[in-house]
Amino acid sequence: MRDIPVTDLLKAVVIGMLALTLSACGFQLRGKAELPFETLYIEGGNPALNAELQRAVSIGSRTRIVATPSEAQAVLQIFNESREKRILSLSGVGRVNEFLLVQRVAFRLRDRNSRIMLPDQLIELRRDMSYDDTLVLAKESEEAMLYRDMQGDVVNQILRRLSGAKPAPPEEPDN
Protein backbone atom coordinates (compact mmCIF):
# COMPACT_ATOMS: atom_id res chain seq x y z
CA MET A 1 0.00 0.00 0.00
CA ARG A 2 1.30 3.41 -0.99
CA ASP A 3 1.59 6.27 1.51
CA ILE A 4 -0.18 9.49 0.53
CA PRO A 5 1.98 12.57 1.12
CA VAL A 6 0.61 14.98 3.71
CA THR A 7 0.63 17.88 1.21
CA ASP A 8 -1.61 15.95 -1.22
CA LEU A 9 -3.98 15.08 1.62
CA LEU A 10 -4.03 18.70 2.76
CA LYS A 11 -4.79 19.89 -0.81
CA ALA A 12 -7.68 17.44 -1.07
CA VAL A 13 -9.12 18.63 2.25
CA VAL A 14 -8.83 22.31 1.24
CA ILE A 15 -10.49 21.67 -2.15
CA GLY A 16 -13.26 19.72 -0.45
CA MET A 17 -13.84 22.55 2.05
CA LEU A 18 -13.96 25.14 -0.77
CA ALA A 19 -16.48 23.05 -2.71
CA LEU A 20 -18.61 22.64 0.41
CA THR A 21 -18.45 26.37 1.15
CA LEU A 22 -19.47 27.32 -2.40
CA SER A 23 -22.41 24.93 -2.42
CA ALA A 24 -23.53 26.08 1.04
CA CYS A 25 -23.63 29.75 0.04
CA GLY A 26 -25.99 29.04 -2.85
CA PHE A 27 -23.50 29.69 -5.64
CA GLN A 28 -24.49 28.31 -9.00
CA LEU A 29 -23.49 29.04 -12.57
CA ARG A 30 -25.82 31.34 -14.45
CA GLY A 31 -28.21 29.25 -16.48
CA LYS A 32 -30.59 30.22 -19.23
CA ALA A 33 -32.30 33.59 -19.03
CA GLU A 34 -35.92 32.63 -18.57
CA LEU A 35 -38.01 35.32 -20.18
CA PRO A 36 -41.58 35.83 -18.89
CA PHE A 37 -43.13 35.61 -22.37
CA GLU A 38 -43.25 32.97 -25.09
CA THR A 39 -42.82 35.16 -28.17
CA LEU A 40 -40.78 38.31 -28.81
CA TYR A 41 -40.53 40.81 -31.66
CA ILE A 42 -37.44 43.04 -31.92
CA GLU A 43 -38.09 46.51 -33.33
CA GLY A 44 -35.34 49.00 -34.24
CA GLY A 45 -31.64 48.63 -33.57
CA ASN A 46 -28.87 47.89 -36.03
CA PRO A 47 -28.83 44.56 -37.88
CA ALA A 48 -25.75 43.24 -36.04
CA LEU A 49 -27.26 43.92 -32.60
CA ASN A 50 -30.60 42.42 -33.67
CA ALA A 51 -28.93 39.28 -35.01
CA GLU A 52 -26.99 38.80 -31.78
CA LEU A 53 -30.14 39.39 -29.69
CA GLN A 54 -32.09 36.88 -31.78
CA ARG A 55 -29.33 34.30 -31.42
CA ALA A 56 -29.05 34.83 -27.67
CA VAL A 57 -32.82 34.59 -27.15
CA SER A 58 -33.08 31.47 -29.33
CA ILE A 59 -30.20 29.70 -27.61
CA GLY A 60 -30.68 30.95 -24.07
CA SER A 61 -34.43 30.67 -23.50
CA ARG A 62 -37.65 29.03 -24.59
CA THR A 63 -38.86 32.31 -26.09
CA ARG A 64 -39.34 32.38 -29.88
CA ILE A 65 -38.54 35.38 -32.08
CA VAL A 66 -41.48 36.23 -34.36
CA ALA A 67 -41.69 38.20 -37.62
CA THR A 68 -44.44 40.69 -36.73
CA PRO A 69 -45.44 42.61 -33.59
CA SER A 70 -49.00 41.25 -33.78
CA GLU A 71 -47.67 37.69 -33.26
CA ALA A 72 -45.62 38.66 -30.20
CA GLN A 73 -46.53 38.64 -26.53
CA ALA A 74 -43.75 41.21 -26.03
CA VAL A 75 -42.12 43.80 -28.30
CA LEU A 76 -38.57 44.95 -27.59
CA GLN A 77 -38.22 48.50 -28.92
CA ILE A 78 -34.63 49.67 -29.37
CA PHE A 79 -35.13 53.38 -29.88
CA ASN A 80 -31.62 54.76 -29.51
CA GLU A 81 -28.22 53.27 -30.14
CA SER A 82 -24.94 55.15 -30.36
CA ARG A 83 -21.19 54.73 -30.29
CA GLU A 84 -18.72 57.38 -29.30
CA LYS A 85 -14.93 57.65 -29.34
CA ARG A 86 -13.34 60.34 -27.18
CA ILE A 87 -9.75 61.26 -26.48
CA LEU A 88 -8.95 60.20 -22.93
CA SER A 89 -5.32 61.36 -22.64
CA LEU A 90 -2.59 63.06 -24.64
CA SER A 91 1.18 62.72 -24.50
CA GLY A 92 3.45 65.64 -23.66
CA VAL A 93 3.79 66.46 -27.37
CA GLY A 94 0.04 66.41 -27.99
CA ARG A 95 -0.33 62.91 -29.44
CA VAL A 96 -3.23 60.71 -28.39
CA ASN A 97 -2.28 58.10 -25.78
CA GLU A 98 -5.72 56.72 -24.94
CA PHE A 99 -9.25 56.74 -26.26
CA LEU A 100 -12.51 56.15 -24.41
CA LEU A 101 -15.01 54.03 -26.33
CA VAL A 102 -18.66 54.40 -25.28
CA GLN A 103 -21.66 52.40 -26.46
CA ARG A 104 -25.21 53.32 -25.46
CA VAL A 105 -28.43 51.43 -26.11
CA ALA A 106 -31.85 52.64 -25.00
CA PHE A 107 -34.85 50.32 -25.11
CA ARG A 108 -38.24 49.52 -23.64
CA LEU A 109 -40.45 46.47 -23.58
CA ARG A 110 -44.16 46.58 -24.29
CA ASP A 111 -46.88 44.05 -24.97
CA ARG A 112 -48.74 43.75 -28.28
CA ASN A 113 -51.32 46.27 -27.01
CA SER A 114 -48.56 48.87 -26.40
CA ARG A 115 -48.79 48.58 -22.61
CA ILE A 116 -45.39 49.05 -20.99
CA MET A 117 -43.86 45.92 -19.47
CA LEU A 118 -40.43 47.48 -18.85
CA PRO A 119 -40.05 51.28 -18.95
CA ASP A 120 -37.26 53.07 -20.83
CA GLN A 121 -33.87 51.56 -20.01
CA LEU A 122 -30.38 52.84 -20.86
CA ILE A 123 -27.30 50.66 -21.01
CA GLU A 124 -24.01 52.53 -21.28
CA LEU A 125 -20.72 50.69 -21.53
CA ARG A 126 -17.23 52.22 -21.54
CA ARG A 127 -13.85 50.81 -22.47
CA ASP A 128 -10.42 52.45 -22.38
CA MET A 129 -8.11 51.78 -25.30
CA SER A 130 -4.43 52.69 -25.45
CA TYR A 131 -3.33 54.17 -28.76
CA ASP A 132 -0.08 54.23 -30.70
CA ASP A 133 -0.07 55.98 -34.08
CA THR A 134 2.65 53.64 -35.32
CA LEU A 135 0.23 50.70 -34.99
CA VAL A 136 -2.84 52.16 -36.71
CA LEU A 137 -4.13 48.92 -38.29
CA ALA A 138 -3.68 46.93 -35.10
CA LYS A 139 -5.47 49.61 -33.08
CA GLU A 140 -8.36 49.69 -35.58
CA SER A 141 -8.72 45.92 -35.15
CA GLU A 142 -8.57 46.30 -31.37
CA GLU A 143 -11.27 49.00 -31.49
CA ALA A 144 -13.55 46.78 -33.59
CA MET A 145 -12.96 43.88 -31.19
CA LEU A 146 -13.77 46.07 -28.17
CA TYR A 147 -17.01 47.25 -29.78
CA ARG A 148 -17.99 43.62 -30.56
CA ASP A 149 -17.26 42.69 -26.95
CA MET A 150 -19.33 45.65 -25.72
CA GLN A 151 -22.20 44.61 -27.97
CA GLY A 152 -22.13 41.12 -26.45
CA ASP A 153 -22.26 42.69 -22.98
CA VAL A 154 -25.20 44.87 -24.09
CA VAL A 155 -27.09 41.79 -25.28
CA ASN A 156 -26.48 40.00 -21.97
CA GLN A 157 -27.65 43.03 -19.97
CA ILE A 158 -30.77 43.41 -22.12
CA LEU A 159 -31.65 39.75 -21.56
CA ARG A 160 -31.13 40.05 -17.80
CA ARG A 161 -33.42 43.08 -17.69
CA LEU A 162 -36.04 41.41 -19.89
CA SER A 163 -36.07 38.39 -17.57
CA GLY A 164 -37.23 40.70 -14.77
CA ALA A 165 -40.06 42.26 -16.80
CA LYS A 166 -43.56 42.07 -15.38
CA PRO A 167 -46.66 41.57 -17.50
CA ALA A 168 -48.59 44.78 -18.08
CA PRO A 169 -51.58 45.16 -15.74
CA PRO A 170 -54.93 44.36 -17.37
CA GLU A 171 -56.86 47.30 -18.73
CA GLU A 172 -59.69 48.58 -16.60
CA PRO A 173 -63.09 48.17 -18.29
CA ASP A 174 -64.91 51.42 -19.01
CA ASN A 175 -68.08 51.82 -16.95
Task: Characterise this structure.
This protein has 175 residues and is an alpha/beta fold. It has helices at residues 6-24, 47-60, 136-163; strands at 39-44, 64-65, 74-90, 96-111, 116-130. It has a 5-stranded mixed sheet, covered by helices on one side. The longest helix has 28 residues, at 136-163. The termini are far apart. The model has no long low-confidence stretch (mean pLDDT 88).
Annotate the secondary structure layout.
Layout: H1 6-24, E1 39-44, H2 47-60, E2 64-65, E3 74-90, E4 96-111, E5 116-130, H3 136-163
Parallel strand pairs: 1-2, 1-3
Antiparallel strand pairs: 3-4, 4-5
Helix pairs in contact: 2-3
Features:
flat, 5 strands, 3 helices, 35% helix, alpha/beta, 175 residues, 5-stranded mixed sheet, single chain
Outline:
35% of the residues lie in helices and 32% in strands. It is an alpha/beta fold and 175 residues long. It has a five-stranded mixed β-sheet, covered by helices on one side.
Q: Residue-averaged pLDDT, rounded? A: 88
Proportion of residues in β-strands:
25-35%
The share of residues in helices is: 25-40%
| Number of alpha- plus pi-helical segments | 3
Instruction: Look at the helices and sheets and give the structural class.
Output: alpha/beta
Separation, N- and C-terminal Cα atoms: 87 Å
What is the rounded Rg? Answer: 24 Å
SSE run:
HEHEEEEH
Number of strands: 5
Low-confidence stretches: none
Spatial order of strands in the largest sheet? 2-1-3-4-5
Bulk shape: flat
Largest β sheet strand count, sense and barrel closure: 5 strands, mixed
